[in-house]
From TrEMBL:
It comes from the Bacteria. Residues 23-58 are annotated as: Disordered. One of its GO terms (cellular component) is outer membrane-bounded periplasmic space. Keywords: Periplasm, Signal. The gene is cpxP. It holds the Pfam family LTXXQ. It comes from Shigella boydii 4444-74. This is Periplasmic protein CpxP. Residues 1-21 form the signal peptide. Its main location: periplasm. GO terms for molecular function: unfolded protein binding. InterPro entries: Cpx_auxiliary_protein, LTXXQ.
Amino acid sequence: MRIVTAAVMASTLAVSSLSHAAEVGSGDNWHPGEELTQRSTQRSTQRSTQRSTQSHMFDGISLTEHQRQQMRDLMQQARHEQPPVNVSELETMHRLVTAENFDENAVRAQAEKMANEQIARQVEMAKVRNQMYRLLTPEQQAVLNEKHQQRMEQLRDVTQWQKSSSLKLLSSSNSRSQ
């Protein structure tokens, strides 16, 4: 059941990330989902974004206007080539999850189908990110790689903190139950 829940959550996140990626016009975002976007009926003219605490791909890197335009063009091309989100797959999963009689095999098959679609989208976005990376000068690439290493260290620290916190929680739970 945990795997199914994780697959459903990952699929939902994928859809929201994909819809966000489709709205990004500047190509300056490296990680999907870094800004919270609220859609309105006139999304092309009325967009409200709120920056998250995560970094953007090119924070701290000075891009030329030519590089920015090339990245915008890459993102626009990717948007046009990417197939639309298959909402019916999400609806199918919802029906399976809320069914009176749970059918694990059907849920597993649907989750695998959705996961495969997500993999295809991630591969396509990775291609675009690679093309964007190749537009950078060697100096800009070095700065980007350094910033990536810093983010990885921060994630390692958070992971260690989470592990130690959960161990403390388990330890205190065991001592109370005795």
